[in-house]
Amino acid sequence: MTRSDKETLLSVEGLGIAFGGLKAVNNVSFGVRPGEIVSIIGPNGAGKTTLFNMISGIYLPSMGQVTLSGEDVTGIAPHLLARRGMSRTFQNLQIFQSMTVLENAIAGYHLQERGPVLADLFGLPSSRARAKRAEAGARKLLERVGLDRAAEREAGNLSYGSLKRLEIARALALDPKILLLDEPAAGCNAVETEEIDHLIAEVAASGVAILLVEHDMKMVMRISNHIVVLDHGEKIAEGDPATVSRNPAVVAAYLGAENADG
Amino acid sequence: MKLTPKSATLLVLAVLVALSPLFFPSGYYYRVGALIFVNGIAVTGIVILTGWAGQISLGHAGFAGIGAYACALAPAHWSLHPALAVVLGAAISALLAWLVGRPILRLRGYYLGVATLGFGILVSMVLNNERDLTRGPDGIEVPELGLRALLKGWGLDLSNGQFWYFFCGLCLIAGAWLALNLYNSPTGRALRALHGSEVAARTVGVDLARMKLQAFMISAVYASVSGSLLALQNKFITPDVAGFMHSIEMVTMAVLGGVGSVLGAIFGAGALTLLPQALTVFAEYEQMVLGLVMMLVMIFLREGLLPSILRKLRGRGE
Ligand SMILES: Nc1ncnc2c1ncn2[C@@H]1O[C@H](COP(=O)(O)OP(=O)(O)O)[C@@H](O)[C@H]1O
Ligand SMILES: [Mg+2]
Questions:
Q1: What is the pTM of this model?
Q2: What domains appear along chain A, each with residue ranges and CATH number?
Q3: What sign results for the dihedral spanned by CA atoms A39, A45, A47, A50?
Q4: For domain B32-317, which CATH number applies: 1.10.3470, 1.10.10, 1.25.40, 3.30.420?
Q5: Across the interface, do B188 and A111 touch by the CB < 8 Å criterion?
Q6: Which residues fall within 8 angstroms of residue A5, CB to CB, at 6 or more apart?
Q7: B202 lies within 8 A of chain A by CB
Q8: Do B197 and A121 touch (CB under 8 A)?
Q9: pLDDT in tens, B165-196
Q10: Per the CB < 8 Å rule, is A90 touching B208?
């Protein structure tokens, strides 16, 4: 069955980028529908993060097209994609280190809380009301990811696993239509991984499309509706978890390598 | 009841402004105090731009120059009231900051530093060379603000030194109040966010170019008002106000005191205004000692004087 049907929220067509001579991603296509969890897997250096960076407007692709809700959004700036309902987390943490945990989460509400700068300077009631609404939302999100008790702490002092969850909270604050998660469970212990796992399933169940990069294969196999396999920047396979895990090329390129490691 | 950092800062400032004169050995210190407050206003703008938004400017004295010369020229040429000239200077500074900031705020780090430096030099050159308008390096008279006479009419008789001390003190408190409002507002949060991680700020929807431009314009207005107040209290101004040294001084005061905090930066303005006076005992070595003190502070108290001192005090209290 073709997956680029009308329902598709995000579709990626023939996307590619080269750094110098290196084709980090080459001619990759797939789609994500609302409420669906699509995982991108592949060995280190396969081009997963680069793919995320192109989809989220951080890198300008040298070929191909990204379509969001039926509109071509290729090469659109990240802050404009945020307005169109795209949100993401980062593999290498991108936390506002010297802000508190709460402020980090509130920052996710930027598009809702921003207003005239003069109102902010003079501390007008309208400005304070905007900030207050964002704070209330942020506190709820922190509770949802289990960070409510760390709200007033400086974010830079939190553990890696906590910061991963803080990034998810911040990304959820945008109330996205599509959420890109780059290794959300990396560096988390088993309990935290399970919590993140539940959280992702819950968010997807609320109708948000999820694009996931994750190294924890058990988690990927358990929660994905669809898996895309990258190797050396190319898509070498895709399908549901059962199909992908039986694919010999995938086993050779990725699962095999992991077995050999472990 | 626990004070918010904002109320605490404003309270400290108000107490300092109100009570310091009790310890003045002579009337001369009103003038020193007023200078500290004028520098404090410019430095508060640097806190917003550099401390919060993380953008550097080595040309902000250019805006101080515009604010200062607006007070000299607008009353003379268009018979504008000096108070309105302050507003005009601020508006021109904001407009210029917008024009200049759009192309150069795309630059980062030292590239931005050099570009802003160029802007400062440009303003300074114009003030030095357009003799027909500005009378060049010799400087130009600035009219009386007239507020002191007004107050006298209402029965409040202040000496010139006293008037400028309290007036600049009030302006500084107002400037600090605005800045502290901004800090915890959506705009302030977005500025601090883009300082923390530009890429993350963009993905939550922060329009980097727009937010940096806003910070640049706001800090330009602070510098402009500071220049205006300097010109008005001296009743005379030279192009030095827009000079490179003045730009460097603003940044140094802020960084020395603690560029992340309004109170810290104002503390830095106080220290760098007072220190040279205290160091006169070293006679011709004054500048060298000053340089040495600055190096030592940066080596041992990198967060800036005030935040480091507060941290030490807190550490002892626990
Ligand atoms: N900005 C960049 N400049 C040069 N090479 C890059 C850049 N970003 C990624 N690459 C290269 O692209 C390849 C894919 O990297 P990446 O997308 O991070 O892989 P993955 O996330 O799958 O581990 C790697 O060889 C990496 O070195
Ligand atoms: Mg990666």
A1: 0.92
A2: 30-95+159-261 (3.40.50.300)
A3: positive
A4: 1.10.3470
A5: no
A6: none
A7: yes
A8: no
A9: 999 999 999 999 999 999 999 999 999 999 99
A10: no
Beta bridge partners of A25: A17
- Name the closest residue on chain B to residue A179, using Cα atoms: B203
B188 touches chain A (CB under 8 A): yes
Q: Where are the domains of chain B?
A: 32-317
Q: How far apart are CA B34 and CA B75, in angstroms?
A: 23
| Residue in A76, A92, A96, A104 to test binding to B, most B beta-carbons within 10 Å | A96
Residue A135 CA, chain-centre distance (Å), reads 23
Of residues B190, B195, B203, nearest to A87 (C-beta): B203
Beta bridge partners of A37: A210
Question: Buried b vs exposed e over B138-167: b needs ≥16 C-beta within 10 Å?
Answer: ebbebbebeebeeeeeeeeebeebbbbbbb
**B260 and A CB contact within 8 Å:** yes
- Set of chain A residues whose Cβ sits within 8 Å of the Cβ of B185: 120-121, 123, 127-128, 131
- Residue A37 pLDDT greater than 90, yes or no: yes
Q: Which pLDDT band holds residue A6 (cuts at 50, 70, 90)?
A: low
Helix (H) or strand (E) holding B38: helix B28-46
The stretches in chain B having pLDDT less than 50 are 317-318
pLDDT in tens, B274-316: 888 777 777 777 778 878 887 888 888 878 888 888 888 877 5
A19 Cβ inside 6 Å of ligand 1: yes
Nearest ligand, measured from the Cα of A228: 1
